[in-house]
Amino acid sequence: MDIARRTFLGGSAAVAGVAAAFPAFGQASAAATAASNFGPEDGIAMLARNENPYGPASSALAAAAEAAGKGCYYSDRGLRTLSEMIAERHSVSPSQVVLGAGSTEILSAIAISWGRDGAILCPGLFWDTTVQYGERQGAQAIRVPLAGDMNVDMAAMEAAFGDNVSLVQICNPNNPTGMLVDAAALRQLAARVTPSATLLVDEAYNELADDPAGNTVVDLVREGHDVIVCRTFSKIYGMAGMRVGYAITSEENAQRIRGYMMSFGGNTCGLAAAIASYNDTGFLDASRAAILEGREMILDAAARSGLTALPSQTNFVYVEVPDADAVQAAMQERGILIRPAYGQWTQYSRVSTGKLEDVARYAAALPEIIDGLGAA
Asked: What pTM does this model have?
């Protein structure tokens, strides 16, 4: 008993000594300084990056704060828990779920792996950053021009498919156009290509579509087709900076993707936030309502300016303008950040739905800017 007591007291002293060795000098000021590095600067309306500025959810923030105190530990159990939650929702096995640092890490791994087996067939305009990454590693991309209405030309995609193609990649809804791919045409493409190649559908904005269930192809994964669906917590969940994304596919494809991913373990705080908010329907419904309201404000501003906008099913709008770069520069002078032109599409300007007060600034400025360009 005496030995145990002395051991306990000695241990307590050691713990106190360790605590004293890590004093909390300047905690509040250091935290404030660190946090100031993230998000737009004061007075800037951030409408360029398809973020949900109303997130993360309060449930996510509470979980992340709690998990931060355990940030010294690797996140194996968190990875398993989130995989199981995603698998349960979509009626697949947890082994069919791949988690990554946003869907970007997963899409990049796919581009490298499948790019070594053949060409990547994709639309001429979509979020192709990860395909470009694959090209830098030696992959070949075959880009199919969009249809006349700026949608993905599914008939042309089918016509371009051949034995040299290992991966067909679609973003649905598409970025930057914001338009949905026709559901029947997408399934027809899947039937055409999956006997000999893999169909990859990036569904980053699926939750913002009018009919998310009717526009996903996760059911094709359940049916055993060679399909990969990618999703992310970066958009409607408001966790772009916390880097959590996932893929749903066959066990064979999942294992193959993991073999090309770079990270070890996961982001403890990001995983905790994702687990806590995955089924937070209150936050998701409120976010969707705010995003749709902002989208309508952008569409209305475009109409009042005499402009045409593509029909969007996302948290951004592709507006036809006289000169996208000129509009972007004029907005930036007013502290409003939107995207410049995408490559050859110099007459389309992508505007994201940020905070409603920031969208209101864009809506007020757009008619003035367009009038000014016309006068010039």
From this structure: 0.91
